[in-house]
Amino acid sequence: xxxxxxxxxxxxxxxxxxxxxxxxxxxxxxxxxxxxxxxxxxxxxxxxxxxxxxxxxxxxxxxxxxxxxxxxxxxxxxxxxxxxxxxxxxxxxxxxxxxxxxxxxxxxxxxxxxxxxxxxxxxxxxxxxxxxxxxxxxxxxxxxxxxxxxxxxxxxxxxxxxxxxxxxxxxxxxxxxxxxxxxxxxxxxxxxxxxxxxxxxxxxxxxxxxxxxxxxxxxxxxxxxxxxxxxxxxxxxxxxxxxxxxxxxxxxxxxxxxxxxxxxxxxxxxxxxxxxxxxxxxxxxxxxxxxxxxxxxxxxxxxxxxxxxxxxxxxxxxxxxxxxxxxxxxxxxxxxxxxxxxxxxxxxxxxxxxxxxxxxxxxxxxxxxxxxxxxxxxxxxxxxxxxx
Length: 388
Known about the structure:
With 388 residues, the protein is an alpha/beta fold. It is 43% helix and 15% strand. It has two domains: 2-199 and 372-383, Rossmann fold, CATH 3.40.50.2000; 205-370, Glycogen Phosphorylase B (Rossmann fold). Helix 10 (226-246) packs across helix 14 (339-350). The model has no long low-confidence stretch (mean pLDDT 91).
């Protein structure tokens, strides 16, 4: 089987949740056939993807300057498309894609940033598949509920535009989502919508959470990402003071690159907050954590940060949005439905090492069963048979 995998950016180096997803899908596609890649770059001098993954075949690189990207973003005001679609629309990539696509058995569009090509490929008679991963409409709807003033009006406008396009894409090509919550957010359309999960590698037993540092709380995420910023601002303002009143030595470690002034300010003049920024050894952070907190109030899809913490055997406390796509019946993590519930869960668990270890054991067992590479490969194979 000859496959073309199309992404809105280079997959490597793997620097965020979108790259984690794309690299995993690429690895599994390589188990199913020969895979070439096509992607946008801002600079033609960027390293070739084969330097990271020699199994890749041909690379089609389309250079998109940053100024041109800004101009496309400005087009959002007049062309009735969502901002996230306008950012990655590129006439040169569309032309190149339509030139080479007919030689492939399947073209897999690897993200929201490439979804807009599905209708062109379908019109050209090409077997196309869209890995949308999250429901962008749900993401924007969640963001709208948390926004105020002009920002609320702007996100509501983008959500309305995205709903129309997501519905159209799902009626045009088979679409993959990371969870049932994302898949079912909008009504099913004419083409199949299927689940393709992320896989998670289990660290060896000696490399898992020690559960010894009860008062050390950990959050991991790309700290330039709006839902992560919202999560930390609210946790520091509304949850952490309640915990500190009962656990005076509690410390929240915020780990992840991209932190701006808004995030760095959280650790200023607050002895309970440490903004670590990017770290080389994320595994050490999981091993040393007492409790992993994921107070997500916006965003969509299964959170990679939570899967990795579960795989490392951490005791995880999250919110209903953070738990989307996960099976709460496994008792592998704690779901808190309010700031008070989250604070009380953290307070209780800091004083109960055996409970923390129990959550850690169940977490690893759950990940091993539900998020194995073999399981994802089977899901992906079924996805690519949707047009048969």
